[in-house]
Amino acid sequence: MKLNIIIVFIFISILSASCSKLILVREPEMRVLGGKTLIEAQVLGRYRQIDESAYQISTLSSEKDLSLIMVSTNVSEEIASDYKEALIRSMFNQDEINLYKTNSYLGENNKGYLSYIAFEISNPKNQFGEERIKYIKEIMEKENTDRRTIAEYLILSDPKLTMANIKEVETALYRRNIQRLINNTYYQLPDGNWTVYTNTNN
């Protein structure tokens, strides 16, 4: 009888230990930090690194200087080149894009890209002609293409990410864009509604 009790006790101990190990190694597929998934937080950190070097990069003026932009060794030369060109073009276009934002022609949508919002979402005070509007849409499309190129580079340069993570990367891009809003410009809320950003610190 005592032998049976000892055997049962050992069996329960082994079973408990096994279950404990199973519980310890199980992790959720998606961790959340301050409302952001771990991937979003990591990508947002990489976007911040890009923004911190914006001033230095914006002073580059030749193709030779483009080699000074650090890129990952995990990507091909073609992808690295596309990334550099997109980064430079996006930075040089920011002043002009901000002009059309403050004139209520462009706004930041909740997908991480620009939207043309004039006369549907907003009512611009300065009404431009057809040629200017065509140009605004063209520069918007270029900026959106550059943003997509940069987002894809961040994925392709990180072995832990795949194109299946594009939505999380774009969400990080959206968060980054919201952090950089300028006064009296439109942006889209996560629920799809549009609102005007007002800097309360001024």
The total strand number stands at 6
Strand order of the main beta sheet, please?
A: 1-2
Structure classification: mainly alpha
Oligomerization category of the chains in this entry? single chain
Distance between the termini: 83 Å
Regions with pLDDT < 50 over 5+ consecutive residues?
A: 14-34
Q: How much strand content do the residues show?
A: 5-15%
Helix content: 40-55%
Largest sheet: 2 strands, antiparallel
| Arithmetic mean pLDDT | 80
Gross geometry: globular
> Gyration radius, to the nearest Å?
25 Å
Please give a structural write-up.
With 202 residues, this protein is mainly alpha-helical. The protein is 55% helix and 9% strand. The strands form three sheets. It has a two-stranded antiparallel ribbon with strand order 1-2. A two-stranded antiparallel ribbon has the order 3-4. A two-stranded antiparallel sheet has the order 5-6. Strand 5 and strand 6 form a beta hairpin. Helix 4 (77-102) packs across helix 5 and helix 5 packs across helix 6 (166-179). The longest helix has 27 residues, at 130-156. It is globular, with a radius of gyration of 25 Å. Residues 14-34 have low confidence and may be disordered.
Features of the shown structure:
single chain; 202 residues; two-stranded antiparallel ribbon; two-stranded antiparallel sheet; mainly alpha; globular; 6 strands
Write the layout of secondary structure elements.
Layout: H1 2-25, E1 32-33, E2 36-37, H2 38-52, H3 54-58, H4 77-102, E3 106-108, E4 114-116, H5 130-156, H6 166-179, E5 185-188, E6 194-197
Antiparallel strand pairs: 1-2, 3-4, 5-6
Helix pairs in contact: 2-6, 4-5, 5-6
